[in-house]
Amino acid sequence: MKLKYLSTILPAQDGEAKISNISCSPNGSRAAIACSDRSVALLDENGVQKDRFTCKPIDAKYGKKSFTVLCMTFSPDSSRIAIGQSDNVLFIYKVGTSWNEKKVIVNKFVQPSAVTCLSWPFDDKILVGQLDGKVRIGLIKTNKCSSLYKTDETVVSIQTHPKRTSFVSAHQDGSIILYNFSSRTQSKICTLQVPPYNLVFTNHGLVVATSDRRVLSYTENGVVQQQFDYNDQSEKEFSSISCDPTAQNVVVASYDRLRLFSWSARRGAWDEGAPLEIQNAYTIGALGWKMDGSTIYAGTVCGGVFSVDCCLRRGMLKSRFETTYVAPSHVILRDVTNDTRTNVISNKGLAIDELKIMGKDRYVIGYTSSSIIIADTESQRFSELEWQSGGHEKFYFDFNNCCLIINAGEVTVVEYGVDGSLGWVRTELTSPHLLSVQVSGPDVEEHKKVKKLAYLVDPTTISIINLINGQQESFINHTGAVDWIELNERASKLLYRDKRSKVTLVDISSDQRSVLLSFCTYVQWVPMSDVIVAQSGDNLSIWYNPDLPEQVTNMKIKGEVEAVLRDADRTEVIVQEPTAKVAYELDNTQIEFGAALEKRDFDRAVAFLESNTSGTDAYSMWIRVAEMALEHGNLFVAQRCYAAINDVAKVRKLHDILEIADEASISIGGDGTHFYKVRAMLAIMGRKFKEAERIFLEQNDTESAIGMYTSLHKWDEALELAKVLNYPEYEQLKTSYLRALSDTGQDSKAAELKVSDGDTLSAIQLYIKSNKPLSALSAANNDSVLSQDENILRQIADSLVKSQLYDKAGDVYEKLKDFDKAVEYFKKGDAYGKAIQLARFAFPEKVVTLEQEWGLHLEYIGQYDAAVNHFVEANDLKKAVEAAIRAKEWPKALSIVENIQDQKVRTGYYGEIADHYSNKGDFERAERLFVEAGLFNDAIMMYGKNNKWIDAFRLSEEFHGREATISSYLAKAEDLDEHGRFAEAEQLYITIGMPHKAIQMYDRVGRDDDVLRLVERYHGEHMHETRKRFATQYEERGDLKAAEEQFLKAGDFRSAVNMYKDSEMWSDAYRIAKTEGGENMEKQVLFMWAKSIGGDAAVKLLNKHGMLMEGIDFACETGAFDLAFDLARIGAKDRMGTVHVRLATQLEEEGRLEDASKHYVEGNKPELAVEMFIRDNDWADAERVAKDHCESLLPDVYTGQARRAIEEGDHLRAETFLLRANKPDIILRYFIENEMWPDALRIAQNYLPHQAALIQEEYEKSELRNGARGVDSFVAQAKEWEQQGDWRKAVSALLKINRDSTDNDALIKHSTEKAADLVMKFLMGDEEYIGAALGALDEANCNEKAAELLLLFGQSRQAINALCRAKQWAKAKQVAQEYLPEMVPEIEKIYKESLKSEGRLGELIDVDVITAIDMMIENDQWDKALDTAKSQNYRPLLDKYVAQYAAILVHRNDLSRVLAVLERYGASANPANFSIYKLLMEETLAKPRFDYTEIARVRNVHLDVYNALQKESSEHFEEFSRALWALHLIAMRTALEEIGDSVPEVQKLCLKQSLSLLRYTDILVADRIFYEAGAAAKDYGSEYESLGFLLLNHYLDLVDAIEEGNGELVDYSPFENSDIPTEVSLPTRQWLESAKHEEMKEWVLASSVDDAHAKELVYDKRGVFEASLKDKRGTAEPCLVTGYPVIESTVRIGSMVAEKDNLNKFLVVIKSNQTENLLNVQNFVAKWAGSPLAISL
After folding, report:
1. Which CATH code fits 393-520?
2. Selection from 1549, 1591, 1531 nearest residue 1567 by Cα
3. Looking at the whole model, is its pTM more than 0.70?
4. How many CA atoms lie within 13 A of 38 on its CB side?
5. Crossing angle between the packed helical segments 730-743 and 747-757, to the nearest 10 degrees
6. pLDDT single digits (tens) 539-579
7. CATH T-level fold of 2-311
């Protein structure tokens, strides 16, 4: 954008005359300038001053100069100006939309301090900033002002976000506060060092120009984005700022300079443009940017105002519209014909790439990268919506205030002036006649706006969508296809016409449809009215009031209606008559009435009604004007309207309201209609009582609200309101209500009030008094006391009887146990159901009678279907059947009849029911009933009557005999035939099996179609024959079309073609040939057609079908050369030669060579003539023609003569002719082929010297082939014999190549194999050559080839041996499997021996894995052997070799390696390996200190064995289970001991594990286990110290027994109540070292004299050792953590258990002291149990 000085608007004055504010109207048509003399100058859109008015002070007594104008802004609708003044007031002036309107104050807001700044974001709300720091909001309608928030600093600026979602206020202390409209919250977002007087709010945040010569950019959150500092430049302080309408550009003004900043979407930042300097401007204090973005107005301190042009570039469209780009996203379009301007702006800030003018040059379409902008140049409104244009969209501009975009079956509605789409629908019917949309203009009040779309969902269904809420308002289904629809202007009615030209009017709100006109050729709403004009024939129909569609005005016209035109004075229908266009004028007065109401011109509407008082609908029209006038606050007009219809009450009421309004206007200003009492009274008049109540309550006028209801006798609403508001006189109000009810005789209403007060007894009396016994009964039932009061209930019952509510009286008497009266009144009230229900237990004998009476009652009232069941209950089946029949309940009637015992009665009913089913068409059921009733003839007649002859025949045959039936039906058929009832006769003929009679009948009367139909159905084999017969008949009669049809249907299209050919109807013949006969047939007929007409006509015909060339060829092929010459001469002269050649060819075939040669020459093909004479050996004529016409063929003539000489053996003459023909190469080739080598060399040397060397070489090769050169000769000879097919000589020659003739082994092998191939192919029947070849192959060591030959010779065994010698094992095995299966093992054995001897293990594995593994083991390649065994996926094989290797490693005492092997390959459950596992366990546990890693490895191996044994259910499972438990407990204890005793839980857990290990002393080192358990118990102390003594004492006994070698010395009696083994094998040596042993021995001895030790096991509540699993009840499961028995607090972990407390302790220990070994234990337990460990709660 560039800034350019444009012009001076107001000249500067000599002294100070500051322009305080410049404001531009949102519609771009005006600009207001606040001058120093307290006046406001108004400029038009061209910057010319058109008006000026002076501002007023808050009070005239202060004088006209008692204030200054501080701020000013336009309203959103541009019709008002708000002016803030220093004398604490805000005035709103109405300036209107035209220049001649008077400027009046419409709102006055008195403020507590001076108004410093303004912003007007919404029509009804204005933001006010004040000197005292308050930010207030003014409500325009109520003329009230309230504070939004308050600060202590003056408000220096207020700016609203472009999208009106929030605003910011700037204050004297530099703070900026953001207020959000939706959340109604404010927050301080930043604070500047200087007051932010110059502030704008853009789409990209805040821009502030400060007095310290800086321009700052902030985000909405107060974060600094950019800073432009001009302190280092010759710049003065910034004095004003303005933002363009797109909020993409900002201009900042200083002393004499304007600086431009533009937002860069690409950079996301502000870019500074070139500044504009204005000399002598002297401080620009005010800026205003026109809404079209083209001009900036700048005001100075000296009172001068000038304009600045803002433009990027300019251009022209259609030589009429000037485009001015004020920004990439803002274009001004100026129509140079009338100087109107239109803004095209992208509110998204996108660059406008393309502009198009559409819709009769009224509408502008702007395209951006991702949106589309549509602008109306007349209304100056534009809209932008997101759109990805593919260039295929269509635009419909036929509708007011909106545009339709059609794209890919979607209809998008765009309202001018509103961004985004108004709505969209999907339909394939997108013609503008099938779409109608009505969108109200911006001048319509919000609550009256209409936005509706009518469209076709399918050709017969109309949908009407409310575009405001997106809901479907109406869905209209029509019987036929609709071809035109249109909504009226208010979208309250819809007109549509269907394709049968019927016009229908639909009232959308009531869905009422009225057919207005049939055979309609034109229909239209009169513009800007609800009048309908339609034409049908020469009749023009007008509906002036569509609400009364029956009131139609008709006039005769003499043409077709073209259009309906309307202006201010008249409305005319333009009719195109035969001679000219004629205008028929409509009653414009009636139309104007509706238009006046639409425009709210009530005075004009009243004037119309006053001049038309005699109309039939005048009353409704006065009412309509009155209601609309009231709605728009025009009370005088409303009063006049009500007076016209003599509604005195409303006239008086309006008079009172007007008096109140006049009084209010004095106090609050305006016309007083905004006064709350006026608004409330108007709401009361409109019966909007809740609205009036709300208005009163908003003003805290409770008395008036309640008084309104009481005056209207709406006591309930008054009481409800009083109760909600806690009205102090509520009780008095209620008393007044009761008194009023009593005075007016409203006892029932009083009773309701009594009920609500809880006085039920009084309420009941009042209900009875008001003759409302049901309400009394309801009140009594709701009172637990009164519902049991017999007197009250009898009073109510009597009242019910008086009111003839007998059924309710019966209920009361039933409650009183007076069953007789209850039943009596139930019957009187026809409540038979209740009577029967009561009688079932009170009077059972009356139930049947009551059922009968109930049935009779239902029958009496016509409820026959209900009566049926009651007659059945009363066992009156006849009445039941009759009721069912009268109710037309035929199935029910039939079921009842079947239960009647009297056959005679039943038969009568069957007939009646059968008649029903017969009439209904249920013939099968009717037949059954007729037969059941014995009415056979009725059944037969039924079928005959309904032309069901087959069924009639069947029944007749069944009941009257076949012969009689056939005779009767044949006669009937013939009779029908004679009377022309052929269809019925046909059915009868077919029914009796005589279809030929029907065929003959139809053939006789000439109904060929029926003949064909019956022949096809019953004699299909004669169908083609019949059709051909008919075709011949038609042909004879001259009906060739019918004949053609039958020929074609018979598949004989050739006959049809011949028929037309014979009749010379060539076009028809050609048509059939083309469609039925294929391409060849088509051509034949066409050529025959052409031949028949000849000449130019034939050429034209063939050219028409593009067949001229093919026609010439066809003529030639058929010998019609005269026709061919004619066609070529006339239409294709270039084909004349071809015709001559074709004729010459035919003449040659006929032997007429001389004539043929002439035509060859005329056809420019003399060479063909020469060739013809050569073929005929006529050398003279051939030489003559060649010399005359084609000398190039003379060599061919001579060559032919030479060939003849060669054939005769005259070589010399042949040589002469060939040399004359200059073809020495031919005679050379002849001499070579005949091996005449000297002659060949002579010719080559004399005439072809370049070939002499080659001939010499060939001469030498010939000698070689003849055996002159040894082995090479043999090879050459063999090759030559092979080429000649002399296989024996070829083989003999090849076999001569052997060690006797050469030392070249490769040549010998190749020659021998070649000889064998020849023998196999050609000499397999010659044993001599087979033997010779085999001998040679054996000598040459060609075993594979020998095997092939032997196999062909039938020597399978020798062939297999040969393959083995060739080491072709696979082939040998394959051959053996096919021919000698018994040799397969022998071959495999030889193969294995070969592989083994050659050491080829890889191949041996594939053949014999066991042998291969054994070889690896022999080579000590155990890892490779085990990997190979593992790869076989056969576990026993792997286990075998693992066991072998483990045994070897054990023998080597390499136990670590044994563990590694078992871990890698798995431990098997083979008992042979058990000793190894036992050894591993013993050796690992025999070490002085337990190593967790080693124990864990042994434990893991045992787990593998454990799992395998468990799967096999092995007898060794228990043995390994005990070993695994022992290893597990030792491993877990070892892992825990690493933590130490610092954790209290660890010591107890280790103790329990040690005690649990005692049960495994028979498989562990006994002395060690007892020692460790005793030491743990001793160290733990407390109750376990005695146990420690007992166990350590036993340990000493074991040591003594070990030393003595006598296990009987050990006493196991202390362990009787435990599972500690008593038979334990003694170790060979003591485990503990002597020092510790002596120490422990001393402690035991010292403790033995202490009586404190009980010297016994620790027992639990079971009475056994606490670590023992076994007790009297059985064996408990061990705990996974301690090994203790789990008796209670069981936690199930997979397949195992744990005691909850010990499990939790263990897991807590792991969590608080994570070690690698503890985690390993946890993982092992989870794997063993099959479930992870988790803390149990």
Report:
1. 2.40.128.630
2. 1591
3. no
4. 14
5. 150
6. 999 988 888 888 888 999 988 988 888 876 788 889 988 88
7. Methylamine Dehydrogenase; Chain H (2.130.10)
